[in-house]
Prior knowledge:
The complex is a heterotetramer, with 2 copies of chain A, 1 copy of chain C and 1 copy of chain D.
Chain A: H1 3-29, H2 31-46, H3 53-78, H4 86-100, H5 120-144, H6 148-167, H7 177-181, E1 185-186, E2 189-190, H8 191-209, H9 211-221, H10 223-228, H11 233-259, H12 270-280, H13 292-311, H14 316-335
Helix pairs in contact in A: 1-2, 2-13, 2-14, 3-8, 3-9, 3-11, 3-12, 3-13, 4-5, 4-6, 4-11, 5-6, 5-11, 8-9, 8-11, 9-11, 12-13, 13-14
Chain C: H1 3-10, E1 21-26, H2 32-47, E2 51-56, H3 61-74, E3 78-81, H4 90-99, E4 103-106, E5 120-124, H5 127-142, E6 146-152, H6 158-171, E7 177-184, H7 189-203, E8 209-212, H8 215-227, E9 234-236, H9 242-250, E10 255-258, H10 261-276, E11 284-286, E12 290-293
Parallel strand pairs in C: 1-2, 1-3, 3-4, 4-5, 5-11, 6-7, 6-8, 8-9
Antiparallel strand pairs in C: 10-12
Chain D: E1 8-17, E2 20-30, E3 35-39, H1 46-54, E4 61-66, E5 69-70, H2 76-82, E6 84-87, H3 99-103, H4 118-131, H5 147-160, E7 165-169, H6 177-192, E8 196-200, H7 204-210, E9 213-218, E10 221-227, H8 233-241, E11 259-268, E12 272-280, E13 284-289, H9 295-302, E14 309-314, E15 317-319, H10 324-329, E16 332-335, H11 339-342, H12 350-355, H13 371-384, H14 401-414, E17 419-423, H15 431-446, E18 450-454, H16 458-464, E19 467-472, E20 475-481, H17 488-495, E21 502-503
Parallel strand pairs in D: 3-8, 3-9, 6-7, 7-8, 13-18, 13-19, 16-17, 17-18, 20-21
Antiparallel strand pairs in D: 1-2, 1-4, 4-5, 9-10, 11-12, 11-14, 14-15, 19-20
One magnesium ion binds near residues 295, 296 and 337 of chain D.
Amino acid sequence: MSKETAEQTMNQNETNGKAKQAAIEILKKYGIVFVLILMIIGISILRPNFLTPNNIFNVLTQSAIFGIMALGMTLVITSKGIDLSVGSVLALTGVVAASLGQSASATSKFFPGLGEMPLIVPILAAVLLGALIGAINGGLLSYTGIPPFIATLGMMTIARGFALIYTGGSPISSLTPAFTRLGGRLGVVPIPVIIYGIMIVITWILLNNTQFGKNVYAIGGNIKAAEVSGVNVKKNLILIYAYCGMLAGVAAIVFAGRVGSVHPGAATGYELTAIAATTIGGTSHAGGIGTVWGAVVGALVLSVLRNGLTLLGVHAYWQQIIEGMIIVVAVIIDMRKNARKK
Amino acid sequence: MSKETAEQTMNQNETNGKAKQAAIEILKKYGIVFVLILMIIGISILRPNFLTPNNIFNVLTQSAIFGIMALGMTLVITSKGIDLSVGSVLALTGVVAASLGQSASATSKFFPGLGEMPLIVPILAAVLLGALIGAINGGLLSYTGIPPFIATLGMMTIARGFALIYTGGSPISSLTPAFTRLGGRLGVVPIPVIIYGIMIVITWILLNNTQFGKNVYAIGGNIKAAEVSGVNVKKNLILIYAYCGMLAGVAAIVFAGRVGSVHPGAATGYELTAIAATTIGGTSHAGGIGTVWGAVVGALVLSVLRNGLTLLGVHAYWQQIIEGMIIVVAVIIDMRKNARKK
Amino acid sequence: ACGGGGGGGTEAPAAEEGAMTIGYASSNLNDTGQTFVADGARTYAEANGLTIQVQDAQEDVVRQQDQVKTMIEQGVDALVVVPVDTSAMGPITDAAQEAGIPLVYVNRNPFGEDQPPEGVYYVGSQEIVAGRMQGEALVEMMGEEGNVGILMGILSNEGAIKRTEGNEEILSQYPGINILAKETGNWQRDQGMSLTENWLTAYGDDLNAILANNDEMALGAVQALQAAGRDDVLVMGVDATPDAKEAVKGGSLAATVLQDLFGQGNMGTEIAHQAAQGNSPSQLTWIDFVPVTIDNVDEF
Amino acid sequence: MTEQPHVLEMKNIIKNFPGVQALKSAELTVGPGEIHALMGENGAGKSTLMKCLIGIHPPTSGEIYFDGKLIENYSTADALNMGISMIHQELNPVEHRPIMENIWLGREPKNRLGLVDHKKMYEMSKEVLEMIDLKEDPRTEMRHLTVAKMQMIEIAKAISYNAKLIIMDEPTSALTNKEVDQLFSIMRKLKENGKSIIYISHKLDEIFAITDKVTVLRDGQYIATEKTADLTVERMIKLMVGRDITEMFPKVACEIGDVKLEVKNLSNGKHFKNVSFQVRKGEILGVAGLVGAGRTEVIEAVFGIRSAEGEIYIDGERVSIHSAEDAINNKMALLTEDRRMNGIFPMLNILQNMTISNMKSYVKKNKLVDHKKMKTDAHRFIETLSVKTPGIYQKIENLSGGNQQKVLVARWLLTEPDILFLDEPTRGIDVGAKAEIHKLITSLAGQGKTIVMISSELPEVMGMSDRIMVMHEGRVTGIIENRKDLTQEEIMRYATGEVKEKLA
Lengths: 342, 342, 300, 504
Ligand SMILES: Nc1ncnc2c1ncn2[C@@H]1O[C@H](COP(=O)(O)OP(=O)(O)OP(=O)(O)O)[C@@H](O)[C@H]1O
Ligand SMILES: Nc1ncnc2c1ncn2[C@@H]1O[C@H](COP(=O)(O)OP(=O)(O)OP(=O)(O)O)[C@@H](O)[C@H]1O
Ligand SMILES: [Mg+2]
Ligand SMILES: [Mg+2]
């Protein structure tokens, strides 16, 4: 063996060792990823068709809607807040978008004679309305000092009420083909997954590479530190909630595209799912700790779980029980990373 | 005027002034009481039948169920926690209690041949089961360190699942007359109101006059300092959640008595109402701050609001919107007590 | 549908002489079907110069009781109630009887086989019948062999339980028919869609039919099937909503079951009106379900 | 130009909080290139005056001139932009973020795309850390640092604003001599560059060592401004307290009894190894060492809130202590080092803060709590320790730092312990109160209590202790009998590990 090859082998060994160690580090740090992988392995052994490309895309698509909401929730919870209104905001922005995206034949009772509008109209409407509602949330809690729980709980009820009034309680359907295309695929990849991916990247950059992102961490980690460092806390809180509301609007578009109709009662309880995904992903309600990848993994844990339980043919009642247990266990395993050897 | 009388007058003036000042102090400190009084005055002017004894008892009865849950939630939130499972725990303890409190004729599918049992059996069952589930919540979060949000979110799903399994999805009815009497009146006073009153007193004493109560504040105020000060944090957390679960069991008994039947889907979303009542009453999610009277007033604000909106004949959709707005406004007014004159 | 909504309710109820007030307690106005029932009630009230006050219990049985009691306190002349939980209507019945106010239950029957007590009425149908109709229609179209998935509503809802029971009652008579899965889509279209996607992975070509407890979930299933390029799976719903009728016409939905919800609300209010005027309408009024397929869809 | 213009003039500042007038009529004038001490007892209003200046609490009334211009209605951000920066008395770390993000919070360097330039931030942070001679990776999360290092970061941050006027509110309360020297050399450099510094500290030697002028506040009132060189210690104390304080370390010899506490071979893999010592009744054992020597950890382990192997004997009997509860049951008490983290309950009132550890003794036979007794006790200690507060229902958060410390001292005295562990008991406490606490410690020893006192102030250790235990990197390097002729240098030799082991 020449010296060179020996060196190469050594390097390789070292690389292997390092890679291994890095992998262990990652697993320890990212315990929840480990849980996700375990779940995937377990389900695939029992049901090999879990790993078909089609099903994988299904799982991703299914996680897209509350996953997008979880992205916004990550900012909110990292800033030590909570947003209970996202489910209702999805419904309200969704019905408004749907009413602007109906096919001309279903000439809507909303805007008679307006005809079919380009897709950008409903999209912008949902996104802007979502951001506006979020900004109201943020403004309320930062200027009056009421707890985020109350501000967004109020908004949850209010937005739902407006969705009901806007629609009279009936779903809005007959969306334009362009709209429902958003629920389809581009090549093999489902468009909801593409949209989700774009939102992940945007949110990641926002949280990690902008001053705004640093402010989010500082506000949640130590609001006094933020204040004495001259961070405009009020303005940033408004932006945080506006972004969260905006993502609820994006989720509404994906929802409408996928389902082809939006019901004023849609997405009831999704706020809890989004918060759960965020929390499973390690974002702390004590503020200052939160990651985008955590929210993505958390959302995946939930959708893999639901998909898996269905594939396994678990009885509907038991699905609830097992889902509850696995969420708890997943977070317990994830917690071990913080376990301090006393 | 003799010197003496002059002095007396002065003293009186002083007393008056003091009383006035005290009243202002109280209103400032207890802003939410002020809001409640305003609401009551407003509604009574528009609808004089609001203040009939019957309707007043209605309002009190209506606040009893989630009011009782809010009492337990006050301890939980004061300790910097949250309990999302109380609605589901109500349902589970409720169906179990109902199955033990059916009239002999409806010889239950649960315990065939057992016949009619004394009322104490279902009551104890609900209370103990509630406490047990709560203790599990508390144990989970204190021993594994997972966030209360996750532990109780998991329990929320799990308890609901068990309620469904226990009943097969159908409600349990035909309760014994003794049981449904709990929904009736003792003299003129509704029994739910009496039970609520007893729970208020017990919780008040517990929180204000026992070592346990002091520990609750300490844990919520600074968990590390509590540990160093010799508080057994784990044991106390278990007790806190057990008490909250137990009160959900008490609420289940009131529920069953009032409705005459318990549905496995009962009380869905009550956790949010209970948390809202607690938060409206000034209990802080940042921990360490919480009062029993606050929870009672918070629950009253909600039930007066709902009762008033119905009496006023406000359209159902608008009721939601107005309810959301008033909750927010009430807490904003309450906040003003903390407002710093800049 | 919303147009008439705001107006009727907000007027001062029972204030002026002559105008009768009907208190209407809906189980859940978030439920499309229930908005049709409420529309029926409102239409009748408007046509007959009645004031109607609509309350929404949002699936909370205690809240419904509170609302009814408050409306009694406020002095309505008659009550129309869509029960949240049919087994829990005792206190409401008692309260109405005590106050001497006629009470009409609509859409969901709290009395089962029994006769309602004096001054209490029922207008509607038996949920289980809808389930049976779906089952029968399915056997007719699919034959006596095949694998079926059932999309259930909220698991604790009576409609979900009874309709599923009706499905099973019929299908169990055919040994060749197999129920692959029963899961809840919580009445929602998006959840019906996700479940169907998962079923397609789990059962693939084995899946021959989907019976949904309502049209919203059925339409979600249709969407998932179309996306997967499957046109061989029969899907059936309940309610005959406009979207569903459209889908039946287009052939993507094999059948739905019409429940004349508008008619139920309308009739319920009429009976309440009659009773409040001192007439004695019949205590039980059945409004039957009708199966809707491509053959008869144009009639509705 | 005849007279040099002032950098800062604060005139007639009044600040009211609900129920408290923190500043009655405060004044402060600072010239360019001047290091100006702001002195006063705990609660005199020093921090409040500085918070008024930096825009956290706008004053109720009064005028502030900066650079000759009247400034009003400004935010903290404005103040920073104008050239005023501040090291706060309470540390403000964003714990889960790296050092560099803490330093540059609110003014992150950006690249052309407007995104945060992490590389540049890293480089800039390295420079800043070099300035204070701190060898930490700027990417280390703040929570991994010791209090002392966090404090150094705060100092670095305040300097990095390149401000004209830097406020330093008790920057040295968590530092030892080495870092203090470092800080002083930085301050001198700043002074050379014409920057002005407002310096707050309760350590008089520091005031004399570094400052040019002194302004004294008492009860929110301006008392005097004098050149430091013209002052004596006695006069300065008199200005602050309004009376004379004679005894600084009132150590009186008292009878020393049997061995009360013995610790044998205490180790916990990471922080300390084989620690053994004995303390007797009536004895005060001082514990000295550099920051990071592991003193806190040893005491925490003895008190049961940190796990470790080894044996603990009380009165000759082996005890097992696994929680603070156990420790308290064994009549121990621990005044912790980090007031904010594991000392106070910020939003609870003084009554609650003071009585929590003693709650057991307030439980009556009927299991209810005896509020009357609690209140009596609280009032008694507010008086004994002269805690400056409007009442027992004041939130402890609203007390000045020194007064918070007094409440904590009271908390432990209430439990009537036999063994007291005091970790930096006079950190942030003014001279008057310090003397009171010292008197108290001495009288406790006189009552036969056993006292273990950690302090980073060598004069305090030497003034108070019967024996001194010195630690270095987790090991006990010496236990020295306190003598008249013991020098700081000698202790430092043990503390730096120069002397390996010598037990007395
Ligand atoms: N937010 C607040 N609310 C009410 N009172 C306050 C508040 N902040 C400070 N005080 C009060 O103002 C007075 C001055 O406090 P300050 O913190 O300025 O004292 P200090 O001179 O800095 O004392 P120390 O040397 O102990 O730090 C104290 O009596 C304190 O209790
Ligand atoms: N949270 C922590 N994470 C990692 N290491 C820590 C942590 N806290 C302390 N250490 C390490 O433990 C050792 C001792 O810490 P500490 O500074 O508290 O000692 P000390 O002798 O009590 O000093 P002092 O009380 O003077 O600050 C140091 O090496 C320190 O770096
Ligand atoms: Mg200070
Ligand atoms: Mg230490």
